[in-house]
Every structure is written in C-alpha cells, then in structure tokens.
Amino acid sequence: MSSLWHRLRRAGRRAREIHAARRAGGPPCGTCGFAGQLLHRDSLWPELIAAWELDERWAGWMNRREGSRCAWCGSSLRAGQLAAGIVEAANARAGTHARHLAELFRDPRARALSIAEINSAGNLHRYLRRCPGLRHSEYGSRDPAVPSEDLGQLSYPDGSFDLAVTSDVLEHVPDLDQALRETRRILRPGGCHVFSVPMVEDRPTRQRARLEGGTIRHLLPPSHHGAPTTGSDDFLVFWELGGDFPDRVRAAGFDLELRRDPHNPAVQTFLAWKRV
Ligand SMILES: [Zn+2]
C-alpha cells in the first residue's frame, strides 16, 4: 500500500517537473526530441575537480555537461548531443531524415545500418538496440549476454560497420592512438566513429598513467571517473584531453567534424569520418 502511495507521489512529482520544464522551454533533446529546460544535479565531486585542476568556469561547464538532464528521457547534456551526432551520421549514411534518436530506427533504411556500440552510451542504448544491426559490447564485461571488447584490439573484422559509437571512454584507454586506429579499421569507407570525450580545450593533453609491460605506471596521482566512493580501477583516467586532441584524431586518418554546444565549451561531439 505504502509503496503504491510512493509510486503515485513519484509519478506526480515527475509530471510536475516535465510540465515545468516544458513551460520554461529549451532546445529539443537529441535523444527523445523533448523541448524543455534541463533538470540539474551536480555530477562532479571535489577530489575529481582538484585532480583535474579545473578552474571554476570549467568545473561549472563539466558539471552541467553530465549533471544537466532532459526532464523527459534523462539524457545528460552530453548524451543528448552525442545522440544528435549519431542521428546526423546515420542520416548521412542511410539517407534518412530523423530528428532525434528515438525516431531514427522507425525508418527501415536506418535499421539496415551496422553499428558497433563499443561501450554503453548511457541511456542511448535503449534506443540503439532497436537497430537489428547493433553489436553492443563493454570493456571487461561481467554480463555473459554482453561481449567484452578491448579498444586496443577489437575482435571485429576490417570494414564491418557504418557507425562506431564510444561514450566518454577514450580517456580511459592506455594507447589512445591505437584505439583510434582500431575504430577506424572496423569502419566501412564512408563510415563514422561518433564519440564524446571530456576535453578541456584551452590547455594541452596531459597523460596521467601509462601501461608498461602490462603494469600501470602512474605519472600523476590516480584519478578515477565513476562514483567517487567506489574508485574502481576500471575508470582510471589515463588521459586528460586538451586542445591538441582533435589533431590526434585527424592523425589517425579521420576527417573530423566537431559539434559544439554554443553555451558550454565542455560539450562536444566528434564525428570522425573514414572517407576512404
Ligand atoms: Zn530527452
């Protein structure tokens, strides 16, 4: 009885939040198309901000990147922009005209795409899995239904995908250039690696750790993403990416287009095309 009461109260609160967000207005969400003000809850914690040496402005931008969410589908500012990037690349590849991810796979031409979701793109997965040609994996997967893929050495054959998607994962990969070469390798000519990474554009890339003979050597005190309390090594930061990173993507052979948020320089989506 009380749990039903709580569920009803929660549903009522959610309906009021959605209504208020819609009234306040905002640009449409790239994931679900809902147009409304984002809800915000802080996503960064003091130790991470200190290790990353973010100033107040960048801490605010990074906080909103992950902590500001669509009232309807829950996509963060970052995930919504990543979804829009996936839709843009898929439309170009399939000749479709979807406006957001939730409607993309209604079109059979989009359902014919072959997509590698190399790590779960947060709440985008529930839409991506509507594509029959989706191959979903995780790094070090513990779920027997989800295969494990290592970005340094993907198991997929050359030229097998129209799109590859990674979501805030390249900063955790020991060999960044090798990972970019690998996603390019598995794409068909004309395919696109769509991804997000946290990048502080007004400073250079800094390497925090490296792999030496299978052992992690810390160049700076270990910093982790993910929940601050767990501090799992799975989320160890190898790279703090800076303004030189786009050139590294180009050096891996990609033709790069960057999609930016006009109000938040921490929010960027990379469309890395394999032209030939
Ligand atoms: Zn949404």
Notable traits:
276 residues; alpha/beta; Rossmann fold; 2 domains; six-stranded mixed sheet; three-stranded mixed sheet; 9 helices; 13 strands; 22% strand; globular; binds zinc ion
Describe this protein's structure.
It is a single chain. The protein has 9 helices and 13 strands. With 276 residues, it is an alpha/beta fold. The protein folds into 2 domains: 2-69, no CATH class; 98-273, Vaccinia Virus protein VP39 (Rossmann fold, 3-Layer(aba) Sandwich). A 6-stranded mixed beta sheet has the order 4-3-5-6-13-12. Strands 7-11-8 form a 3-stranded mixed beta sheet, with no helix packed on it. Strand 12 (255-261) and strand 13 (264-273) form a beta hairpin. The chain is globular and about 55 Å long. The chain starts with a helix and ends with a strand. The structure holds zinc ion. Zinc ion binds at residues 29, 31-32, 34, 70, 72-73, 75.
CATH architecture of the largest domain: 3-Layer(aba) Sandwich
CATH superfamily of the largest domain: Vaccinia Virus protein VP39
* Cross-sheet strand order for the largest sheet: 4-3-5-6-13-12
Shape assignment: globular
Total domain count: 2
> Residue share in helices?
25-40%
* Contiguous helical run count: 9
Could you spell the SSE succession in H and E letters?
HEHHEHHHEHEEHEEEEEEHEE
Q: Uncertain regions: pLDDT < 50 for 5+ in a row?
A: none
Strand content: 15-25%
Largest sheet: 6 strands, mixed
Separation of the first and last Cα atoms: 62 Å
Compute the CA-based radius of gyration.
Answer: 19 Å
**CATH class bucket of the largest domain:** Alpha Beta
Enumerate the distinct ligands: zinc ion
Mean of pLDDT: 94
Oligomeric category: single chain
Structural class: alpha/beta
